[in-house]
């Protein structure tokens, strides 16, 4: 990539050689160059630099900067849009929602298929107090009686509802500009889930 420089200030970036050529149709340009002066205008090749790690923000390529005699790519931290933060929030809520739950000393899967199965078992357990099932957990198979089935199903239901309620609270904070970056979305969500 190249930049157009006048009075040691970048006035157009990024530029390609065909774009530079279109500004100087009657002039033959080299196929590649580091620096090219045409009248009061200088075109310079921009040395690429590594994008910073994300951390709590995102970066876009900004106006190049001159370091010594070399023009270098410059990364500028930019704010997330509310829509981007809403997507980050929904994704994080989903990860937590389907990530499993410790309940009654058991690790219970909370993906959507497992939730459907436990809610179906709950329906039978409510109507038959002698009802038992063999349930597969991440630690192996266990037998569950009707009381335990109902307790687990209710716990899973409450957990899922808490995920969505927490998402609504963080959503409101984003709307009110109280949350402005990715790390805040996740930290506040996780904190509210433990309360």
Summarize the structure in words.
It is a single chain. The chain has 5 helices and 10 strands; from the N terminus they run E-E-H-E-E-E-E-H-E-E-H-E-E-H-H. It has a 4-stranded antiparallel β-sheet with strand order 2-1-4-3. The chain folds into 2 domains: 2-78, no CATH class; 82-194, no CATH class. The model has no long low-confidence stretch (mean pLDDT 92). With 195 residues, it is α+β, with helices and mostly antiparallel strands. The chain has helices at residues 17-23, 82-97, 112-127, 146-175, 182-194; strands at residues 2-6, 9-15, 35-38, 41-45, 58-67, 70-78, 101-103, 106-108, 132-137, 140-145.
Radius of gyration: 29 Å
Residue windows where pLDDT falls under 50 for at least 5 positions: none
Q: What does the overall shape look like?
A: rod-shaped
Question: What class, by secondary structure content?
Answer: alpha+beta
Strand content: 25-35%
Overall pLDDT level: 92
Q: Care to count the β-strands?
A: 10
Strand arrangement within the widest β-sheet reads 2-1-4-3
Structure summary:
It contains five helices and ten strands. With 195 residues, the protein is an alpha+beta fold.
What are the defining features of this structure?
195 residues; alpha+beta; 2 domains; four-stranded antiparallel beta sheet; two-stranded antiparallel sheet; 10 strands; 30% strand
Q: Layout of SSEs?
A:
Elements: E1 2-6, E2 9-15, H1 17-23, E3 35-38, E4 41-45, E5 58-67, E6 70-78, H2 82-97, E7 101-103, E8 106-108, H3 112-127, E9 132-137, E10 140-145, H4 146-175, H5 182-194
Antiparallel strand pairs: 1-2, 1-4, 3-4, 5-6, 7-8, 9-10
Helix pairs in contact: 2-4, 2-5, 3-4, 4-5
């Amino acid at each position: 990539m190249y930049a157009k420089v006048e009075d040691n200030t970048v006035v157009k970036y990024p530029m390609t050689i065909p774009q530079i050529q279109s500004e100087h149709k009657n002039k033959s340009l080299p196929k590649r160059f580091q620096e090219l002066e045409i009248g009061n205008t200088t075109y310079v090749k921009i040395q690429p630099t590594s994008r910073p790690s994300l951390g709590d923000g995102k970066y876009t390529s900004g106006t190049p900067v001159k370091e010594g005699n070399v023009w270098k790519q410059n990364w500028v931290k930019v704010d997330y849009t509310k829509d981007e933060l809403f997507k980050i929030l929904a994704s994080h809520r989903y990860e937590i929602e389907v990530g499993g739950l410790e309940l009654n000393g058991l690790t219970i899967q909370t993906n959507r298929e497992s939730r459907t199965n436990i809610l179906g078992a709950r329906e039978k357990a409510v109507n038959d107090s002698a009802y038992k099932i063999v349930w597969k957990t991440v630690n192996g198979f266990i037998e569950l009686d009707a009381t335990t089935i109902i307790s687990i199903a209710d716990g899973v239901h409450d957990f899922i509802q808490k995920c969505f309620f927490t998402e609504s609270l963080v959503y409101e904070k984003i709307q009110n500009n109280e949350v402005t970056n990715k790390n805040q979305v996740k930290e506040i969500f996780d904190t509210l889930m433990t309360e």
